[in-house]
Specification:
This protein has about 140 residues and is mostly helical. It has one domain. It has helices at about 1-15, 30-35, 40-50, 55-60, 60-85, 95-110. α1 packs across α3 (about 40-50), α3 packs antiparallel against α4 and α4 packs across α5 (about 60-85). It binds zinc ion.
Length: about 140
């Protein structure tokens, strides 16, 4: 069921560009503070990835793009273990790695809100036409 929901969500993201359609959720953190949360630009990044535009996706949310292989591995592992009952051991993440991940998450959030280059590259662009490879439809 989760795999079907993921495939459906990716299909919606493939068909409907988040910059053009208003049914996607808005980021309340960004709306209230004007700052970018770690997830800002994630939908636009996923839309770009579904169209094969890797660099555009990196520009929208580099943390998400870098984390996707690990998220996909975890999702497939969970599916195979819990749904398909494959005899796999649970994924074990040592505490120190969790601390490193949380620190990277916080650091990414702080850095992408510094309005000076090169940190501005970590924030999603206000206009998708400012990046190379972005999907700009007229
Ligand atoms: Zn956000």
């Amino acid at each position: 069921m989760a795999m079907l929901a993921t495939a459906g969500a990716l299909l919606v993201l493939f068909l409907f560009n988040p910059t053009e359609h208003r049914f996607y959720p808005v980021c309340l953190f960004h709306q209230w503070t004007g700052w970018h949360c770690p997830g800002c630009g994630a939908l636009r990044a996923l839309h770009s990835l579904t169209h094969g535009r890797f660099l555009a996706a990196l520009h929208f949310n580099p943390l998400l793009v870098l984390a996707l292989p690990f998220l996909a591995y975890t999702g497939v592992h969970f599916f195979l273990r819990e749904v398909a009952s494959w005899p796999l051991r649970p994924i074990y993440v040592p505490n120190r790695w969790i601390k490193v991940l949380v620190a990277a998450f916080v650091l990414f959030t702080v850095l992408r809100n510094i309005p000076v280059a090169p940190f501005t590259w970590l924030a999603p662009p206000a206009s998708p036409s400012t990046i190379v490879g972005a999907d700009v439809r007229l």
